[in-house]
Design a protein that fits this description.
28% helix; Pdz3 Domain; single chain; 6-stranded antiparallel barrel
């Protein structure tokens, strides 16, 4: 190779490298432009959803006349084991001991139109027992609404305003939601109307949160703050996939976790509220729980799947269908059962008379059992019976949620917790205090208020009943009168 060739070699190499670098830089610039375009399209999609849905989201203002007075000593606890603030947090304010005073209590929340003639979905706790419900539309109109029906057990409520040709939202399919999918929350946090936040589905099927009796929440990191309750959770198509209901917070503000009722759970409840003003739930009459690995092994299963039947109530739909304690429900109508809570919600979400085909693991093999749901006792009658019994006992009971159990140091499903004790009543006289636990009735363990009431009906003798009471430092049997 001559000297001239050698002399040319360096510049040629430099030009080649420089040319390649320019090409790479050009490609990267093009890629960056494409990525920016993708972001712009995503932004436009959210903007389009906002434009199409915000007109159907409403601000709800409520007023209620309440009576109050200063109690002589709320939640009297001579042992000093449960502070008043803690007990109020979970059980509310006890019955007042002095002459009541009246005042007007106000509240606010969100809701959304689901028909063009004024039906609105919201949360039960937003409208509650309000005397007056006012709805403000996005066009500035304020209209008085009537309560169609509320279902505190699921936190769903329907109200209605008298108007026509209103914008409304379409209900989607929450079963199609995937973890990680974009969702959009719209509401009126802190009274600021038409506020939109964006996030993802961070979990599904959340239960045992302690918000409602029937829980199957969508968990999202889309910001939900006070005032958002009752507003819609939307997918990117602008369809409702949930009702924003609550947040997890240690400060009262948003901390990255919000909960929404899945719209598929809402649909059947909404239909019943519109048609009859109340919800009648299906009932099989079985006690169930999630199947652990240890139990699965004992029942001869290769892995833990399905839900275990602990007990079958006498005369129940489950007994009539042939279900037995020890059966393991694997599938319902061909669909795998995920959790005991999801199964309970599914049964309760369908009206009495609904037929299910259960695939059950029994004695080492799988069998199919058809069961037609019965009906829970009418909710009003049940509450009336409970209040009558609680009045005789001089104490009020409620289900032990996971949060309350952790705070009080009890295992989950350990019993039902005493939330209020009547001053001078039967329970107070024998030393029962708020925060104590009723573990069993006539030696039969109870995990819910419903089971407590059923056990009292079945085992009361001579107008008396034996309860096992647990406090923070002791457990003992007591005999109480129910006459």
């Amino acid at each position: 190779m001559n000297r001239k060739s050698l002399a040319m070699r360096g510049p040629v190499r430099f030009l080649a490298v420089a040319g390649f670098a320019l090409i790479v830089a050009g490609l990267r610039a093009e890629e960056a432009k494409e990525e920016v375009q993708i972001l712009r399209k995503a932004s436009k999609a959210f903007t389009e959803v906002a434009r199409n849905t915000i007109p159907a989201v409403v601000f709800i203002h409520v007023e209620q006349t309440v009576e109050t007075g200063e109690p002589a000593r709320p939640f009297n606890d001579p042992h000093g084991l449960f502070g008043d603030d803690f007990l109020r947090r979970f059980f509310g304010t006890p019955p007042q001991q002095r002459a009541p005073r009246q005042f007007r209590r106000q509240g606010q929340g969100s809701g959304f139109l689901i028909t063009d003639d004024g039906y609105i979905l919201t949360n039960s706790h937003v409208v509650g027992d309000a005397d007056r419900i006012m709805v403000r539309l996005q066009d500035g109109r304020e209209l008085e609404a009537r309560r169609v029906g509320t279902d505190p057990r699921s936190e769903v409520a329907v109200i209605k305003i008298e108007a026509e040709d209103l914008p409304f939202l379409k209900l989607g399919d929450s079963d199609d939601l995937e973890i990680g999918e974009w969702v959009i929350a719209i509401g009126n946090p802190f009274g600021l109307s038409a506020t939109l936040t964006v996030g993802v589905v961070s979990a599904k099927g959340r239960s045992n949160i302690g918000i409602a009796e029937y829980e199957d929440f969508i968990q999202t990191d889309a910001a939900i703050n006070p005032g958002n309750s009752g507003g819609p959770l939307l997918n990117v198509d602008g369809k409702v996939v949930g009702i924003n209901t609550a947040i997890f917070s240690r400060s009262g503000g948003y901390m990255g976790i919000g909960f929404a009722i899945p719209v598929n759970m809402v649909k059947t409840i909404k239909d019943q509220l519109v048609q009859t003003g109340k919800v009648t739930r299906g009932h099989i009459g079985i006690a169930i729980r999630d199947l652990s690995e240890e139990l699965a092994e004992q029942f001869g299963m290769e892995r833990a799947e399905g839900i275990l039947i602990d007990a079958v109530m006498d005369g129940s739909a489950g007994e009539k269908a042939g279900l037995n304690h020890g059966d393991i429900i694997l599938r319902v109508n061909g669909k795998r059962t995920e959790t005991a809570a999801a199964f309970r919600n599914m049964v309760a979400g369908n009206p009495p008379g609904t037929e299910f085909v259960l695939s059950v693991f029994r004695d080492g093999k799988e069998v199919e059992i058809r069961v037609t749901t019965g009906s829970l006792e009418d909710e009003a009658d049940t509450q009336e019976q409970a209040q009558e019994l609680f009045g005789k006992l001089g104490m009020t009971l409620q289900n032990l949620t996971r949060e309350v159990a952790e705070r009080l140091g009890y295992p989950e499903d350990a019993g039902v917790v005493v939330s209020q004790v009547e001053a001078g009543g039967q329970a107070a006289r024998i030393g029962i205090r708020p925060g104590y636990l009723v573990e069993s009735v006539a030696r039969k363990r109870v995990a819910t208020v419903e089971e407590f009431l059923q056990a009292v009906r079945e085992h009361a003798s001579g107008g008396r009943i034996m309860l096992r009471i647990r406090g923070p430092r002791f457990a003992q049997f007591v005999i109480m009168s129910i006459e």
